[in-house]
Amino acid sequence: MKLRIVAVGSVKERHLREAIDVYVGRLERYCRVEEVEVKDGPKVADALERACKDAIVVALEVHGDTVSSKQMAKRVERLASQGKGIVAFVIGGADGLPESFSRAARERWSMSKMTFPHRIARLMLSEQLYRAMTILRGEPYDH
Questions:
Q1: How far is the C-alpha of 27 from the C-alpha of 103, rounded, in Å?
Q2: Residue 143 domain-assigned?
Q3: Which CATH number does the domain housing residue 85 bear?
Q4: Which H/E stretch holds residue 133?
Q5: How does pLDDT run across 82-91, given as a tens digit for each residue?
Q6: Exposed end of the chain (fewer CB within 10 Å): N or C?
Q7: How far apart are the first and last CA of the chain?
C-alpha cells in the first residue's frame, strides 16, 4: 500500500510543517507515504492529474461523503487493495478542486461541513490516515 497526499499549495508555517511531519513519520511505519505539492494556477487540473498518475483518487471536498475514522480505515483498506495499491488523497487550494478533476475522482470525501485552509486540512488528513492504520491493526490509538 502506498498513500499519496496531494495538495494545492505548500505549508510554509514551521509549526504546521512539523506537526504534519510527525504524523507522516508515524504513518510511514505502516505503509509508504508520499507528499506532493502542486502550484495553484490555470493548469492546476493538469498538475493534479500528473500527481495522481497510477493512483486511485480520493478528492477531499466540503460536499463529499462524510465518514467516521473507522469507516475511513475500511475504505482506505478497500481502495488500497485495488489497482496498483496507490491511493491519492487530494486537497484543493483556495478555490477548491477543479470541477473536471473532482468528477473524475473515484471517491469524494468531506473532512467536515466547514471549510479549512489547505494547510490545516493536510494536518488533519495526515493524522486521520495514521489513525486509520492503527484502527486496521487493532492498536489502541483510536479511543
A1: 28
A2: no
A3: 3.40.1280.10
A4: helix 118-136
A5: 999 999 999 9
A6: C
A7: 25
